[in-house]
Structure formats: C-alpha cells, structure tokens
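User: Can you help me understand a structure? I only have the sequence.
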Amino acid sequence: MPKPKVRSGLLRQYIWAGAGLGLYFGLFFRPVREANFAVAVALALLATAVTIVIALLKKDRLPLRELGRTAVTTFIKFALVLAMLEGRHYIYDLGGKWLVAVFTTLLGAAAGWWLAQSDLSTK
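Assistant: Let's start by predicting it. Here is the structure, written out as tokens:
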C-alpha cells in the first residue's frame, strides 16, 4: 500500500483527470439523437467481452471463478458510466449545455475517485 502522502496525491490526480474528461464530455456534447440505454448496455457487454478475452489470452490467467467476478464488476462499471453518458440527453433538456458540463464534470470526478480506489487497493 502506498504511503499516505503518495496515496492522496494519486487520488487527487485520478479525480482531476476524471473531472477534466467529464468537463470535455459535457462541453462538447451536442444532442443529435434520443437517449438510448440499450446502446449503453450493448457497448458495456462488448467492452466486457474484450476485457475478458484479453484476460484469457494472458499466460497467468485468473481462476474461472475470479474471471467471472471480474466480468460482472467490469460490466457494471462500464454500464454505469455509459448509462450516465446517455443521461446527458435528459440533463441537457433540463438545463442546457452548462448543466451538462457540471453533471459530467462531477460524474468524471466520481469515476476518477472510484477508479483510484480499485487501483490503489491493488498496489
């Protein structure tokens, strides 16, 4: 486990990077279609499948039970993030471009914190 000072620095870095990506996704969002959560689920399934295939190709594979758990948590993470991105359509209808920017910035910061927690716990 990293030292507390290093840990807080990495956590801050993840949060700022996530917030920056979220701000980007918000500022340049232009609704050109209706929200479609089925697309988010399909993309989450595809991303999970790619992740699991890559894990299966490694020489030091995870046990099948652990691989299943990884697949489920990976799908949940992808599906949540992609569903929130689809939610931008509704936020745009509520408050326009600036509310979308605030929403996605906060979402990005939260995603950065979440990724940092899982990444820092493995180090």
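Now, to help you interpret it: The chain has a mean pLDDT of 88. Helices lie at 4-27, 37-57, 64-86, 88-122. Let me know which part you'd like to focus on.
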